[in-house]
Amino acid sequence: MDIYLLRHGETDWNKMQRFQGHTDTLLNEKGRIQVEETARKMADIGIRMDAIVTSPLKRAKESAAIAARVLDYPQEKVAVEELLIERYFGEGEGMATEVMKAKYPDCDYPGMESKEELIRRAGLALQKITETYGDAQRILLVSHGAFLFALLEAASREKIPYQGRAACLKQGCIYRIRHEDGDNTFAAYDDEAGAFTELDAAGLGRMARIYL
Q1: What is the pLDDT of residue 12?
Q2: What is the CATH number of the domain that holds 130?
């Protein structure tokens, strides 16, 4: 089973570097283009999905709809999974990154979902999806930066440098978890190669340092 991880495209809050969390923001035009381009890359190398599952937030649902259109997947079959929702940032929701750093230099925002809770939820989501779609060969999960980072950590069973705050995969980026015989391997789409490049645990760590 190949599980593809797609982060939603850019929103205006992303552009302003404001914490979104559960706040239900919309894609902007750049974000729509990002997702379409990413989905087109998959289509161009012959990848089609047996299932598409999205976070309930609008920015993810629109991204899923765009990907479904490009990948010729029926819109009415796109499923919503509550477990894929973004990390809740408590008092940080809506605040600009620089303001948050000044107010909470240790990145401990009151009311925030803890890293441990987030990784546990991500693990539950992965288990539920692999069980629910056990006959599928290719599944696209559309979610959010902090959640997808936690999902990679849950799937790798390795601690990835997190630096005490939400990690952030680039908007519109795509990763792959290959689930086979109880083990997971990882790959990231390489624009230069026009294909997915395998990542080991060290590669996941490098990715974390790049995008934190």
Answers
A1: 97
A2: 3.40.50.1240
